[in-house]
Amino acid sequence: MCSGESGTWLEGMESKQSVELWSVRRTYRAAAREMRALDGVTTGFEAGTFTAVMGPSGSGKSTLLHCAAGLDRPTEGKVVIDGTDLGTLDETGLTLLRRERVGFVFQAFNLVSALTAEQNVFLPLRLAGKPVAPEEIRTALAEVGLADRGGHRPSRLSGGEQQRVAIARALITRPAVLFADEPTGALDTKTSRHVLRLLRDLVDRRRQTVIMVTHDPVAASYADRVLFLADGRIVDELVGRAGAEEVSARMTSLEARAC
Ligand SMILES: Nc1ncnc2c1ncn2[C@@H]1O[C@H](COP(=O)(O)OP(=O)(O)OP(=O)(O)O)[C@@H](O)[C@H]1O
Ligand SMILES: [Mg+2]
User: Which of 13, 14, 52, 228 could cross-link 223 (Cys pair, CB 3.0–4.6 Å)?
Assistant: First the structure.
């Protein structure tokens, strides 16, 4: 397809953006020095797509995710989630948006150790004061392949199982976007693949929007698009499913440029 045809086809598409970042800057002040963790990032994340964010340590990946999810406020610029400009929300509005429209999964799972898997999944609804049928919690756990583990506390679950409980918990409010910061960082290769297949399946089957930070080119190969950050800026992008080798080659050239 020539670029003209492709442009026309794209212009005709009604693509809905789950998240938009407009000239987002996040600076930190340390020892009278200004540090730009994010330095003018503009990008969009289309609904029902899976994006991986890669880049060297300290390049701003977590800062990008936190600003995009409303966990942190940018110093400058605009973040729009599911049509809502976060800059127009006060703290209460932001808390509600985070609770209802956004799911977040961390490398360290962050489950409550005293609660069972079912109670952990129920937690966001409990905090929101929303009633829920026990069946709904069981279905959420079944969807991540843990139908028979609902009564187990985290200490009786493997790392991969704990991360799947965390994913079920993040999705129980049916958020517009699921953010994941190195969700497979603490898992072995086999368990990682299981979690990545689950994320891919959520995008394919439920049209869930997923934005995932990762250091692993194999993990990034599950995404529809890979963004590369360096020094707080988007410096490269792979659009369409890319192989792990291609992702790895881009990372290598990025790191070589930084030297
Ligand atoms: N709360 C903070 N105060 C001061 N500087 C910070 C703070 N949080 C992050 N930074 C700095 O901002 C930059 C980007 O940090 P960030 O955590 O986004 O990087 P990252 O790409 O996620 O790195 P990693 O791969 O190591 O997790 C780093 O230089 C970091 O030291
Ligand atoms: Mg990080």
Answer: 52
